[in-house]
Amino acid sequence: MNTPQPAHPLDLPAVNRLAPALRALEDNHRNDLQALRAALVDLLRRTLQEGRDEADAALMQDQNGLACARRLSRLTDAVVRAAYSYAVKHFHPVANPSMGEHLAVVAVGGYGRGTMAPHSDVDVLFVLPYKATAWSESVVETVLYILWDLKLKIGHATRSVNESLHEARGDMTIRTALLEARFLVGERRLFNELLTRYQTEVVAGTEAEFVTAKLAERDARITRSGTSRYVVEPNVKEGKGGQRDLNTLLWLAQYVYRVRTPDAMIRVGLFDSAEAAMFRRCTEFLWRVRCHLHFVAGRAEERLSFDYQPAVCERIGYAGRDGMSSVERFMRRYFLVAKDVGGLTAIVCAALEERHDKPVPMLNRFVRGLVRPYRQRLGAPGFKLDNNRINIADGDVFINDPVNLIRLFRLADKNALAIHPDAMRLARRSLRLIDRPLRESPEANSLFIDILTSRNAPETVLRLMNECGVLGRFIPDFGRIVALMQFNMYHHFTVDEHLIRTVGVLAQIDSGELAQAHPLAHSIVTTLQHRRALYVAAFLHDIAKGRPEDHSIAGARVARHLGPRLGLDPAETETVAWLIENHLVMSNIAQSRDLADPETIRGFAATVQTLERLKLLLILTVCDTKAVGPGVWNGWKGELLRTLYFETEPRLMTGGHSAVSGSQRVAHAQAELRKAMPEWDDVTFDTYKVRHYPAYWLKADMARKVKHAAFIRAAESDGETVATAIATDKFRGVTELTVFAPDHPRLLAILTGACASSGANIADAQIFTTTDGLAIDDLFLTRAFEEDDDEIRRGEKIAATIENALKGKLKIADLVDRKRPKTARRTFNVPTELVIDNSLSHQYTVLEISGLDRPGLLYDLTTTLGKLNLNIASAHIATFGEKAVDAFYVTDLTGAKITQPMRQAAIRSAIAGVFSGPAPRTVKTVATGA
């Protein structure tokens, strides 16, 4: 048995107790190998658990993530060495080992670096002299079974030195793992031979190959995990700006420069002292987060999801401050670190480029005509072309003229050229030059506006400015929201990334790239009088996030201050301020109001006032929504916005006056339908038209009226009292489910319950009752499948559930209850709010209910409203991450608005009950109108 290792400053008490405990095992079970093995596994299991607990306690005390990772690695080392030592001494002893009876146990991969998270894999290589023998196979098997009994996740391989080198030549993963090989126990001579031959036979002369492979591997990994480092639920290990990026930098430095530490990187010229210190800070912080995350999750969890962010934040010790919650402050720190990792990556890549030929770089491969001739002239003193990229001509270019810090990026955009990493590096080091005189420089601001409103690649260039810190220094209000996240499930990116993406979407619409996806925005963007104001509004619309006050109002104030500095005239500045203050209005109205109600359009038109503002707000709303994150925008939202636009446009153009009475409009709608149904005789049509109330004729569009008429006639011809129909709409991204059935107060609850039990999300609902006691309801379900056949099959299953429920063959409540989660999600605190508004519609009371979303919530709400004897005329459903915002247009059973205080109080109480649970929420009520 090997001599016990001396104590190390990073050893845990459990490690130091292990050696004497192992000696005691030998004394107690010397003649009983089976009992010895059982006692060994029990001792090692206790050691691991005690050691992890001690590492957790030390982490909570010193908050040093790197020290924690090293302690955990040394804990694992002690366990592996003990398993091997007992295997060769007690279970498979050899008095005079032959040439084949030698073995080295080597830590490889992440374990080889000597750092581990609490639940990391343990990657080991068993190195043989030349081939496996019965002895080596037995030892390896014994060691592995001991480690498996300890529930460790072992990655292992058994190879000779020659086999290891052969595999490394053909497999880049194995080559990388050996790069970090670390001797653990056994025959050190074998390890030394492996290491020496690896450097001479594998590494030497293959540096360019390795660099190319590792950078390609990084690109593929980032594509899988998300191309942005500002995703609000980041993967600490694999995500962009995470640990794997730092690992890649170390691999490249080791392979190409033969250095393993930040200090050694300074010696070979990769980093300066500040950058090396940054590398160490980033490494420690990411290890701190990852270790805390593993301890919180109790497993190898690498995604810093919303469920874990509060606990990790609390363990690290962040507190709320300056309008930001503790979680938001913690996550901002995380994203700033990820940003620094990106800067370090650029530095190393630039140095590697000096050694190896690389492909011609491009600013953005999607911009037409990107690659320019090498002889192109920039026409700007202080800059030059370097491998078809913009680089600095001398080290004083920014000192001599600080405006060059903005001009650098304008040149990149204007010429569609990438920026050399050396120029970016110097820009980062020159941020102190961005002071008040530069911010107030008309030339600098003019250059910035040219970048922002460019038709080339404003998103790419703004992101480069943000990555190196220039954007936040030049626009200090933007600097306040750099790396700022919002702790909710709706926003997928940090605020700064969202704003930059919003500008990017606007540029795509402006250039015509999104003409098919957004036909209305495309058609009106070229008619704008205030194009420049729209770009500034897109860039600033969330600039005041993270402040205690309403960000729309505060943002408008920022715009009024910043507009003149950027060179906007008073009219443009006021337009920007108005757009920012109202940037959520159109989306909210489109998703939560009845767009067929004249009062909705009248109120919205009064807010917008001019056709130009309507155009600007429509385009800004589209860009804002699309930039929130994948899956947030869909065709249904686009249809709602187009409907609101087209309903409002004539009111703004004519002043909102109409000489046509309601009865005349009803008669006109009936005449239109009669013309569209030539196969019907007059008696049949006259009988049909009196079955619908005036509201139906005014609200339903012609296509829907035709569809309803044919559907109702077919159902009644077949003698059906309950009928359903399914239709898909790929462009709008919805599936329409139409139901014809006897009317009763709980009808909508049954429909929503059937959808909830099937996992279907309702985007909207139109509800019409007939004069003979029937109902024709349209539900618009968010599409779940790409192919129509799959979507129709899903819709038919939901329709069958509805028909069976309406015919009394099953209980919807039971189906919904089976779908409810066992425990409620309490990660987010969403206050419940109820607005009872009688001013939004002439005919209906509008109930706007918002609160924490959950499976079956819409069913619970509609069931509750039914029990309150309220008729629901239409329902408008919007979900913003974890927050549900549902609006219901209701009357009492006599068709009157809900105006009595006692009835309103009953509604408040019932809605509070829907959201109550282990932690009842306060219900806020605003009652408007009589």
Automatic annotation (TrEMBL):
Q: Which UniProt keywords apply?
A: Hydrolase, Magnesium, Multifunctional enzyme, Nucleotidyltransferase, Repeat, Transferase
Q: Which InterPro entries match?
A: ACT-like_dom_sf (IPR045865), ACT_dom (IPR002912), HD/PDEase_dom (IPR003607), HD_domain (IPR006674), NT_sf (IPR043519), PII_UdlTrfase/GS_AdlTrfase (IPR013546), Polymerase_NTP_transf_dom (IPR002934), UTase/UR (IPR010043)
Give the Enzyme Commission number.
2.7.7.59, 3.1.4.-
Instruction: Cite the residue spans of the region called Uridylyltransferase.
Output: 1-377
Signal sequence, renumbered to the chain: none
* Coiled-coil residue windows: none
Per the similarity annotation, which family is this? Answer: Belongs to the GlnD family.
* Protein name according to UniProt: Bifunctional uridylyltransferase/uridylyl-removing enzyme
Q: Can you name the source organism?
A: Pseudochelatococcus contaminans
